Amino acid sequence: MEVGRRGWFVVTHDEMLLRNPLERIALKASGAGTFILVSRKLTGQQMADALVAAWPKILRFAATHSMPFIAKVYSHDHSVKALSLDV
Description:
This protein has 87 residues and is an alpha/beta fold. It is built from 3 helices and 4 strands. Helix 3 links the parallel strand 2 (33-38) and strand 3.
């Protein structure tokens, strides 16, 4: 996958990725780091604000974890938590 090859990250709001084993396998195979924003009933602007507020923690996480990885970014406290790539 182009994203992983270039050393980029995936940022998404799609938590269903976590429930689909094939999507987890694809994320792992891509070699990319994936951040999933966990937010309920937020507007697009509120999600953007949450990502901006969490950005220092996202950068710290990315600097200390090898790709591929999946991490949740929580909008309420801007924390970043690693998840298992295992299916």
